[in-house]
Amino acid sequence: MSARSMSGAGITDAAPSVVTGSLIRASDVDEAAGRWPQYEAGLRWLDDFVTQPHPELGRPGAVCPRLAPALHARAVWLATVDVPAYTADQAVLAGRLLMQLFNDLARQSDRADTTLLGFFPDLPADRAADFIDGGHRLLRNEFAAHGLMLGEFHQASTVGSVHNRALPVMRSPEPMFAVRTMTPHDLLFADQPDTPPAERLAYLLHFDRHVSARLSSAARTQLYARIAAARTASRTGASS
To answer: In this structure, are 170 and 55 located in the same domain?
Structure first.
């Protein structure tokens, strides 16, 4: 029985690892054609959906307005991660590994443009939601504390656009985590459905620390009002 097939017992010393040779720039994928089919599928999805406008998005512009400039700057990196078990705990370890790798890569180019996509090609489709979404829930504020955003993508994702919750913008053909720096735009993601008030408050405080200096005075006023509301909700246990 492989370590990956075990439920968790006996693998406490095992940790995720980046597959040797898998770290490449998105712009160099053609040079490794056929070796990393997950990259080819993922990049087709980025080209056909993520970097394009969508009639159901609820706003003008691309689904992700940051990605095309990052691709143009050759600042998008791809890596394949091997995990010993498909559990949320292992997803957390994988996310932290990708955070460390992102920080190393960001020293080589503009940190604001750098994006890292970590692929999990061996992750079964019926385990993807628990692994990717479960890991994201546990890691979201940990990444925010470092001024980073963690995106969660898989084939069965139900995460919708901020402007149209019915459009599943995180539904990708390959399961992956995406790591990038936090931007002023990310204030939109503070109020995700079902986010507990204490977690919302923590996210807003991290956002304030890392991003508020780049906001207009009006946006900072709005941010501080949202922090005050989240702090009150956290004390009272209200949902909003």
So the answer is: yes
Q: Pairing mode, if any, of strands 115-119 and 76-82?
A: parallel
CA distance 68 to 94: 26
Is residue 190 included in any domain, yes or no?
Answer: no
Burial of 193 by CB count in 10 Å (0-12 exposed, 13-18 middle, 19+ buried)?
Answer: exposed
Question: How many structural domains compose the chain?
Answer: 2
Q: Looking at the structure, tell me whether residues 116 and 227 fall in a common domain.
A: no
Query: Using CA atoms, how far apart are residues 71 and 94, in angstroms rounded to an integer?
Result: 24
pTM of the predicted protein model: 0.90
CA distance 129 to 155: 8
Between CA 163 and CA 51 the distance in angstroms is: 17
Print the domain residue range for 228. 197-236
Let me know if residue 34 belongs to a domain. Answer: yes
pLDDT tens string 181-207: 999 999 988 877 678 999 999 999 999
CA separation for the pair 60, 57 (Å, rounded): 8
Q: Which of 4-13, 30-39, 49-58, 192-201 is modeled with the greatest confidence?
A: 49-58
Cβ atoms of residues 17 and 97 within 8 Å? yes
